[in-house]
Amino acid sequence: MTYGPSAGQLVRPPEHHHDEPHVPVFVGARRDELDTIMSRYPTKMAALLPALWMVQDTHGWVSEGAVEEVAQVLDLTAAYVKGVLSFYTMYHQHPVGRHFVQVCTTTPCNVCGAEDVVHAFLEHTGCGELGLTSSDGRFTVIEVECLGACGFATPVMINNEFIESVTPERVARIVAEHD
Ligand code: FES
C-alpha cells in the first residue's frame, strides 16, 4: 500500500550499492579505536558488536565487503559475522536513508494512534512504504516494537535521536528539521 502524492517517487534500496567496492573502515584512527576496544576484552570476538557498529557509523550500513573486513580483523569467519549481523535488527544489511526513522507500533502506542504517525511519516518523507528509501535519499521509515517510552506515545527514533509524544500533526515539522 502507498500513501499520499509521493507514491510515484518510491525507490528501493539501490542495488548498485551492493556492487560498489568496499572502502575499508579499520585503517588509521578507526583501526586505533578498534584496537582500544579489543584491549578491553579477553578475546577479539568480544569486540564484534562494536566493530559492526563502527562500520555502520562509517558507511550507513554493513555490506558483504564489510563483513569480510570485520571477519578478517577479528579472526572470525565471514559466516559467523553474518550470523550475528542478521540477528540484530539495529544493523542495516542494505543501504538506508540518512535519517532512519523508527516508530513504535506496539499495542500501548498503537491504541494511542501510532499507525497514524507512521502514515504521516510515510507521506511527508515521500517514502510511501515501510522499509523503502525516499528518492532524495533522506529517509527510511520502519515500525519497531516497544521503545521503552510507553507513557509518551508515540515515541520515534531518528538515528540516535529520541522524540517523545509524536502526533501526526507534528510530523511535517519533524521531517522538515531533518535535511
Ligand atoms: S509500547 Fe510503544 S514505547 Fe512501549
Give the secondary structure arrangement, pairings included.
Blueprint: H1 16-19, H2 28-38, H3 48-59, H4 64-73, H5 78-87, E1 99-104, H6 107-110, H7 114-125, E2 139-144, E3 156-158, E4 161-163, H8 168-176
Parallel strand pairs: 1-2
Antiparallel strand pairs: 1-3, 3-4
Helix pairs in contact: 4-5, 7-8
Bound molecules: FE2/S2 (inorganic) cluster (FES).
FE2/S2 (inorganic) cluster (FES) binds next to helix 6.
Structure keywords:
single chain; 179 residues; alpha+beta; Arc Repressor Mutant, subunit A; Glutaredoxin; 2 domains; 8 helices; elongated; binds FE2/S2 (inorganic) cluster
- Write down the overall geometry: elongated
Strands of the widest sheet, in order across it, are 2-1-3-4
- Strand content bin: 5-15%
Terminal CA distance:
26 Å
Label the structural class.
Answer: alpha+beta
Assigned CATH architecture of the largest domain: 3-Layer(aba) Sandwich
Bound molecules: FE2/S2 (inorganic) cluster
Largest sheet: 4 strands, mixed
Number of strands: 4
Number of helices: 8
At the fold tier of CATH, the topology name of the largest domain is: Glutaredoxin
The proportion of residues forming helix, as a percent range, comes to: 40-55%
Question: Rg, please?
Answer: 18 Å
Would you tell me the overall average pLDDT?
Answer: 90
Order of helices and strands: HHHHHEHHEEEH
CATH class of the largest domain: Alpha Beta
Number of separate structural domains: 2
Low-pLDDT regions: 1-11
CATH superfamily of the largest domain: Glutaredoxin
